[in-house]
Amino acid sequence: MGNMMYAYVTHPDTAPDIKNPPTFNPLLGFPNGRKERTIEATREELDRAAVPLDKRDYCVDFYLKYLRCREQAFPFVKSSCHHEWHEYDVCQYEDFVLRMKEYEREKRLKERAKRIEKRRKQKM
């Protein structure tokens, strides 16, 4: 509710558009650069494993590891593959946190740009 109020009522001009990529340079504020996020699995591997589209994100490597364990440990999946599932779950949580931080960063940079523009207009 709070985000909807911010995005549509109080600050629609500085709310990030979640359907489009960020508008600011991703390296802005990172003098040493950022770690690039990569996926080790190839598209062919994902197709062979029949990984659903909603699972094909940055955590797909952990999901494939879980699927391999599940295949080997059947029918004792729950007790044998708990660690693999936990790794996948932690990755999903960290990805969620990173996306929320990126949203907040975009919002703050938009507010900063708005303040700078306001100050620039006042000086003229």
Give a quick rundown of the structure:
By secondary structure, the protein is mainly α. It contains 5 helices and no strands.
Written account of the structure:
60% of the residues lie in helices and 0% in strands. It has five helices and no strands. Keywords: Coiled coil, Disulfide bond, Electron transport, Membrane, Mitochondrion, Mitochondrion inner membrane, Respiratory chain, Transport. This is NADH dehydrogenase [ubiquinone] 1 beta subcomplex subunit 7. It comes from Pomacea canaliculata. Residues 93-120 form a coiled coil.
Features of the shown structure:
124 residues; NADH dehydrogenase [ubiquinone] 1 beta subcomplex subunit 7; 0% strand; mainly alpha; coiled coil; elongated
Provide the β-strand percentage band.
Answer: under 5%
Structural class: mainly alpha
What best-fitting shape do the alpha-carbon axes yield? elongated
How does the major sheet shape up? none
> Terminal Cα separation, in Å?
39 Å
- Work out the helix count: 5
Q: Assembly state here?
A: single chain
Determine the mean pLDDT.
Answer: 89
Number of domains: 1
Order of helices and strands: HHHHH
Fraction of residues in H or I helices: 55-70%
Number of strand segments = 0
Output the radius of gyration: 21 Å
Which residue ranges are poorly predicted, with pLDDT under 50 across at least 5 consecutive positions? Answer: none
InterPro entries: NDUB7
Coiled coil: 93-120
Family: Belongs to the complex I NDUFB7 subunit family.
Subcellular location: Mitochondrion inner membrane; Mitochondrion intermembrane space
